[in-house]
Every structure is written in C-alpha cells, then in structure tokens.
Amino acid sequence: MSRRPAKPRLAVPRPRSVKVALGERSYSIRLGYGMLADLGEQVARTTGARRAVVITVPEVGRRYAGRVLRSLRAAGLKAERLDVPDGDATKNLKQLGELYTAFLARGLDRSSVVVALGGGVVGDLAGFAAATYLRGIPFVQVPTTVLAMVDASIGGKVAVNLPEGKNLVGAFHQPRLVWIDLEVLRSLPKRQRAAGFAEVVKAGALWDERFFAKLERDAEALMRLDPQRLLPTLQRACAIKAEVVARDEHESGLRMLLNLGHTLGHAVEKLAGYQDILHGEAVAMGMVYAGRRSEQLGVAPAGTAERLEELLRRCNLPTELPRHPRSAYLEALRVDKKSRDSRIRYIVLRRIGKAEALELTAARILPANWDRRG
Ligand SMILES: NC(=O)c1ccc[n+]([C@@H]2O[C@H](COP(=O)([O-])OP(=O)(O)OC[C@H]3O[C@@H](n4cnc5c(N)ncnc54)[C@H](O)[C@@H]3O)[C@@H](O)[C@H]2O)c1
Ligand SMILES: [Zn+2]
Prior knowledge:
Elements: E1 16-20, E2 27-32, H1 39-47, E3 51-56, H2 58-74, E4 78-83, H3 93-105, E5 112-118, H4 120-132, E6 139-143, H5 146-152, E7 157-162, E8 165-172, E9 177-181, H6 190-207, H7 209-223, H8 227-247, H9 262-271, H10 279-296, H11 304-314, H12 326-333, E10 343-351, E11 354-361, H13 362-365
Parallel strand pairs: 2-9, 3-4, 3-5, 5-6, 6-9
Antiparallel strand pairs: 1-2, 7-8, 10-11
The structure holds nicotinamide-adenine-dinucleotide and zinc ion.
Nicotinamide-adenine-dinucleotide binds at residues 57, 59-60, 86, 88, 91, 118-122, 124, 144-145, 147-148, 151-152, 155, 157, 167, 184, 187-188, 192, 279.
C-alpha cells in the first residue's frame, strides 16, 4: 500500500527574541509562528505564578483564548478568561473597577499573573490593572495587533482614559514577558494591519535608515504577511522600540522621538472626535507633514517627505491631513490654553533614519501660509 506523500508544509521561520534591557526589570520579547501553545511554560518560568487571568475582548478571545488557557493550564497554572468590551472606550475607570472586583473574587494575589491577550486597548487596561492591584502584580503581554506588537506592548506605559482625555491616568509597569504569535495577524482586519505598519515605518524613519530601505523593498510582501519578511521586520521594529525605551525608560528625552508624527496625528484624532480615523492612519498623516515641515525649516534634505509618503502609500495608509481650518488645528495643538507662545516639542527629521526634537510654538509648526499637504 502506497502512502500519499505528506503535504509539503510551508516553512515558517524560527522564533526570534529581542531583549528589553532595564536592569532587574529586563524582559524578553519573543516572536514566532504558533507561539501560543508554548506560552504557559514561559509564563510559569518567568513569573513563577500559580494563577492567571487572561484579559481579552470577545473578538480575540473567541479565536485565541482557548489555546492560551490550555497552554497555561498545561503548565500547571489555574487560568481563567475575563472579557472586556471591544474599543478604546473600554479603557475607563469603571471597567478598571470591575477588573479589580473580578481579581478579588478569583483570589488573585502577588503570586498571580495578568495576561493581556489583544490589541493596545487590552494591553493598556490590563496592564494598568496589574500595575495598581495590590500595588502591582506581574503581567504578560500577548499582543495581537501589529500596533500592539511593535509599540504598545513594549516599554511599560499602561493607562486608562478619563472623560477629559486619553491616557490621563496611568503608570509605568513593565511586563515580565512579551509573547508574539504572528499567526494571529491573519485574522486582523486589513485596515488595522496597515495602521500598525505606520508605527513600523515610524521606527525606521526616526532610527534606522537601512531598515527603512528594507521596508521600501518589502512593502507589498509585508502587506501580504509573508512570514519570511514579516518576522525579521517586526523583530527589528520591536528592537528599535526596546532600544529607545532601554535608554530612556521614563520619557525624559530620547523616548520623545517616538512621537514622530504624533503631534499632528493626535490633533487629527481629536478633531475627528476619535472616530473614523485609526491612530496609525493619523500618525501616517502627521509623519508626512513632519517630513515636509522638516524640509521647509531647512532641517531635512529635499525628498525626505516624498520617501515617507511613497512608502506609507504602499502600506495603504493616508498621507494627507483632513480638511480643517488652520485655527482648528492650532486649537487642537495648544497644550497650554492660556499662553499663545507655549512651546511644543515637535519631532522633526534630520533625514530618514534620524529624528530630533525642536521646541516650536504651534504657529511655527503650522505657519500662516501652511498647506495641509505640508
Ligand atoms: N502603552 C503604549 O505605549 C501605547 C502605545 C501605542 C498605543 N497605545 C494604545 O493602544 C491602543 C490602540 O491599540 P490597537 O491599535 O491595537 O487597537 P485595539 O486594541 O482596539 O485593537 C484593534 C481592533 O482589532 C481587533 N483585534 C485585535 N487583534 C485581533 C486579531 N488578531 N484578529 C482579529 N481582530 C483583532 C480588536 O478587537 C479591535 O477591534 C490605544 O488605546 C492606544 O492609546 C498604547
Ligand atoms: Zn502611536
């Protein structure tokens, strides 16, 4: 009897690691394919925890929580799932209060671990709950969006929103482990994928010209989630964030460079009422504007913004600021409402691969003869 030859399996690249070097608070970011099955063992090893809660949203939990819970239980942990509603509005004080109540009801203590399974919303909320419950218990990030993988899950910034504004109550609480299974990106809606790539492009633009050039070669393959290209790309993006955070954990200087594209980006989000535009899309627009403004200020060579715009477009991202009057943008930019001359640390590009902060007034960022295409 002849056996049919085994179906050739698509080769997936082997897992890779990035270290976030923060002394005794150091941790690893591990990226690969099919990683969820091995999470439990790693969580047990890095935290020694006996009990875990997996915080997720229904959309993500439905697909992936089963694997995560099985893996945790196989490693000897008592593990349960806690769902929170989807959407940024879930990062609020009421939801936080409900998490504390659920933690108490399940008897979580300092030998327990909070596992955040989801995008940046879950990571920020679960992370802040872990940072504050019993003055802080261990937590592990299992990011499932591109944005959370390369940005939100790294660096320990955790927060909830207030009615008055986003991320106004928060803490620095580093995770014990960041565990990234790239397979989960297949179910992530394309628009969310693209938005996450804005932060990948940002990492190259502010830190590493060679990496940026690689993105220029691979953009279409990355949009298709080609594993051979995706793994090293996300690894490098994580490594850039890790390096910046390791040099400036509490955002006293260098870490500010990560705000490239975010000054205008936040204004765009605010003016849209945090609806219809994804964060990464707003950042893409803000970056192109920052590139153009850098050229006009004589800081960056001609062609810098063009390169950014072209790459972002190939990642299916918008590059032109929405039509609002200059006065609306100025209003949205002003941090100190009383002083017209207060300065904003605006991130400009010296060139692709090198960013720096300039202290500028809102009026200098958006000059009178401004053009929203920069
Ligand atoms: N802490 C930080 O340093 C930091 C940095 C950047 C952003 N953030 C925060 O991150 C949040 C944004 O994160 P986000 O962009 O990941 O948004 P998100 O968490 O809302 O996720 C986006 C959407 O994708 C869905 N989803 C997630 N993973 C999926 C998957 N694998 N398959 C199918 N659907 C999936 C979610 O249900 C959600 O609807 C904001 O609250 C922002 O403030 C924090
Ligand atoms: Zn961002």
